[in-house]
Design brief:
Elements: E1 2-9, H1 15-26, H2 29-32, E2 36-44, E3 48-55, H3 58-65, E4 88-92
Antiparallel strand pairs: 1-3, 1-4, 2-3
Length: about 100
């Protein structure tokens, strides 16, 4: 499993509109991308939003984000008008607690 975290630094005056746009856009992702195991939008008003997604495999993540999934975020049309900086993306795998 691969956990992908996209972080957006949002213009505070556009935060609610950006939140609505992201929630609407990602709501269809489980149907479009069967390898998406779980996803959520995390809010830190007034200016930070995380989109966290869990993917079954690297192949599934490539189908969503393309061959450069490791270092290029997926940017929705018109998204940059809400942001003060480019999206940042990071990836994690699960570690053992035992």
């Amino acid at each position: 499993m691969i956990i992908r975290v996209s972080e957006a630094h949002v213009r505070p005056e556009r935060f609610e509109a950006f939140q609505d746009m992201i929630v609407t856009a990602v709501s269809e992702f489980p149907v479009r991308y069967p390898g998406l195991v779980h996803h959520e939008v995390l809010l830190a008003p007034p200016d930070s939003l995380l989109y966290v997604s869990r993917w079954r495999s690297e192949e599934d993540l490539v189908r969503y984000a393309g061959e450069h999934w490791r270092d290029q975020p997926v940017v929705l049309p018109g998204e940059d008008e809400y942001l003060v900086a480019p999206l940042q993306v990071r990836h994690f795998t699960l570690g053992s607690l035992s």
